[in-house]
Amino acid sequence: MDAPKLILVRHGESTANVAATAAEAAGLETINVESRDADVPLSPLGEQQALALGARLSRELDGRPEDARIFSSPYRRAIQTAQLALGDARSFTIDERLRDRELGVLDALTARGVDARLPAEAARRRWLGRFYYRPPGGEAWTDVALRIRSFSRDLDWSDGHPALVFGHDAVVSLFLYVYLHYTEAELLEFLLTRVVTNASVTILERDTTGAWAVGAFSDDRHLEAVGVPPTAHPGAARDQ
């Protein structure tokens, strides 16, 4: 039996999301983050968003979360989101292939900071484009896509149960690239007017022919339904 759906969740708002947005708006060159990317926690609002996910995910899993295969990025903000949304007693599998894109030398720099401090990298990024550019010490989007292909090959869909993934905006976007067989141009065009919002739900569903389609993309109506503000915080401008 084919799996009915793949549910992709972006983590709730993180403290680094808040700091990056503020730094970009203020025209600063650096982002004030107090920990490495893997250890960035949710903001207080992000914790509220994660809690608000619980009822939505229960509905998507037909009230039987125990039947779902559940995975999370190893990064703190994704794990916190899973714990708050599912309850601490619910177990899930941590898979390092679901971590956020690594930015290498661009980490903690704003778009202005990259232009000012690493002009050669800024020029190389503009030449190669966001899809193929790999910063020194970091990853291209194609590297993240390879991780997702590896993760997907290990999924066993034979039991017909849905899979639930807690990850990041780039990870959610590249699941679409892999599962829908998008080209580079098709993915970038799709994302041109769309953002993976915090604590949003994206659903990929497989039909009787085995083809995958988007059932929902970046749906955060469950937040508004309980009075929790949604937040966008798209990937840093240096990654656009």
Structural notes for this entry:
This protein has 240 residues and is an alpha/beta fold. The chain has helices at 15-26, 44-60, 76-86, 111-117, 119-128, 141-153, 169-179, 184-192, 221-225; strands spanning 5-10, 69-72, 93-94, 163-167, 201-206, 212-219. A 6-stranded mixed β-sheet has the order 3-2-4-1-5-6. Strand 2, helix 3 (76-86) and strand 3 form a beta-alpha-beta unit.
Task: List its salient traits.
single chain, 240 residues, alpha/beta, Rossmann fold, 6-stranded mixed sheet, 9 helices, 6 strands
Strand content: 5-15%
Helix/strand-derived category reads: alpha/beta
Spatial order of strands in the largest sheet: 3-2-4-1-5-6
Low-confidence runs: none
Q: How far apart are the first and last residues' alpha carbons, in Å?
A: 39 Å
CATH superfamily: Phosphoglycerate mutase-like
Helix fraction by DSSP (H/I, runs of at least 4): 25-40%
How many helices? The count is 9
Secondary structure elements and pairings:
Elements: E1 5-10, H1 15-26, H2 44-60, E2 69-72, H3 76-86, E3 93-94, H4 111-117, H5 119-128, H6 141-153, E4 163-167, H7 169-179, H8 184-192, E5 201-206, E6 212-219, H9 221-225
Parallel strand pairs: 1-4, 2-3, 2-4
Antiparallel strand pairs: 1-5, 5-6
